[in-house]
Design goal:
mainly beta; Rubrerythrin, domain 2
Length: 46
Amino acid sequence: MRKIVTLICTECKERNYTTSRNKDTSPLNLRKYCKRCRKHTLHKEK
């Protein structure tokens, strides 16, 4: 059972990515590229 989640930049709060994850795992925290900040930042699950 997978769930679609949105990833939000922690610095500028822009929604940049969508991905899927297992419902049983902990929340996602990934370092992804943010177009608005123009650098790699931490993105958290919304």
